[in-house]
Amino acid sequence: MTRVFSGIKPTGHLTLGNYLGAMRQWAAVDQHQADALFCIVDLHGMTVDHDPARLRRLTRQAATLLLAAGLDPELCTVFVQSHVDEHTRLSYLMECVATDGEMRRMIQYKEKVASEAVRGRSVRLSLLTYPALMAADILAYGADEVPVGDDQAQHVELTRDLAVRFNQRYGHTFVVPKATVPKVAARVMNLQDPMSKMGKSDDSGPGVVYLLDEPEVIRKKIMRAVTDSGQEVVYDREEQPGVANLLEILAACTGGNPESLATVHDSYGALKRATADAVLDVLGPVQARHKELCVDPGYVEEVLRHGAEKARAIARPIVDTAYRAIGLLPPGAFAEDAVAQPAVNAAR
Ligand code: AQP
Fold it and tell me: What is the mean pLDDT of residues 184-213?
């Protein structure tokens, strides 16, 4: 059976981009068709300035929202990254396989360095090295597929390179995974700045639809979305990025396609109204389920505890194999290795 792994980082309140680009596919498809693991990658939430209490709060909220979005612990494994030590154990090995140049080429690194500079903050070393941790997240589970939004495809590409390199140098250890990206809404754009991705830690609140925004707030944000100077509704990402973004959101929510939806709406106002209705239809049940789950935090806690146990049981033997392959002496294997090695090699 295909194994799928993906994660979400608790750096802010989850957005419509997170939902349409990733979570919805996890719930509707992946958990039914694969042995699927979904992780709240809290360690990735510390690569930029963070507040410990907020990180804990957002981790709880992300876990609750994943379940509210339809992840079913009977069908898949949901857990918190820092509850399974194998991620950090393997991450260091990935750092020993990756190069400094590779890390510095990552687009997210360059973008976040720029935004940290604008905020007058120093750049944490972990911002540079976190793709190694992300590679470890994926490789520790022998995942075949990694369903992600478009912005994470480069990191999955790096993970593939590291897996291939490790396997060539130290013997076959890792499954080489591939990214799967949704056909529409792989990159939902900020409603106020349709040239930039809608991100949960964006400063532009009015351009970001959060999953837990009140319905009237969601409607207002969509009705005030920046459109383009023309009058006609056409799907053209280059020339009409604002309209194209709304059409993609609408298509993702209704199951249509952006080109044909463009012919259905004859004004920007009509398109915005239809998009707002469609988004509210999709998010309504998620918000209702979230409210129910908040009443029973013990249930979510138990899901995460059980999830971490299952995840650990998969990751530990794979990471142990990697430790052995790269040349680390396992505890209790001193004598075994000494007997196996010729004396001349053992002395080196
Ligand atoms: N705007 C988006 N459109 C489509 N997919 C998106 N994803 C994120 N934003 C969009 C996808 O959501 C999954 C979880 O993302 P993440 O939380 O791990 O990190 P991210 O990609 O860096 O998301 P954000 O919201 O932009 O966080 P910040 O602002 O903190 O950097 C991934 O599959 C991602 O592709």
Answer: 91
CA 244 / ligand 1 centre spacing (Å) = 19
CB-CB contact of 250 with 275 (8 Å): yes
Instruction: Using the atom order of ligand 1, give the atom closest to the CA of residue 48.
Output: 30
- Answer yes or no: is 194 within a domain: no
Q: Are residues 279 and 158 part of one domain?
A: no
- Shared domain for 120 and 164, answered yes or no, is yes
CB atoms within 10 A of CB 250: 27
Task: Indicate whether 241 and 315 sit together in one domain.
Answer: no
Best of 39, 59, 115, 151 for a ligand 1 pocket test (most atoms within 8 Å of beta carbon):
151
Kindly give the distance from the C-alpha atom of residue 159 to the centroid of ligand 1, in angstroms, as a whole number. 17
- Please check whether residues 181 and 211 belong to one and the same domain: no
Look at residue 98 in the predicted model and tell me its pLDDT.
Answer: 98
Q: Is residue 45 one of the residues assigned to a domain?
A: yes
pLDDT in tens, 72-119: 999 999 999 999 999 999 999 999 999 999 999 999 999 989 988 878
Residue 266's domain comprises 205-293
CATH of the domain at 285: 1.10.240.10
Q: Which of 206, 163, 160, 156 is nearest to 186 (CA)?
A: 156
- Whether the per-residue pLDDT at 345 is higher than 80: the answer is no
Residue 143 lies in a domain: yes
**Residue 11 CA: which ligand 1 atom is closest?**
30
Q: Is 272 one of the annotated active-site residues of the chain?
A: no
Q: Is the pTM of this model over 0.90?
A: yes
Q: What is the 44 CA–ligand 1 centroid distance (Å)?
A: 12
Is 310 among the catalytic positions?
A: no
Q: Which residues lie closer than 8 Å to 158 by C-beta, 6 or more apart?
A: 98, 102, 106, 131, 135
Residues 6+ away with beta carbon under 8 Å from 272: 222, 223, 225, 227, 246
Instruction: Report the pLDDT value the prediction gives residue 19, as an integer from 0 to 100.
Output: 97
Question: Are 25 and 109 part of one and the same domain?
Answer: yes
Distance 208 CA to ligand 1 centre (A): 12
Q: How many domains does the chain have?
A: 2
pLDDT at 230: 79
β-strands 35-40, 3-8 pairing: parallel
Does position 268 have pLDDT exceeding 80, yes or no?
Answer: yes
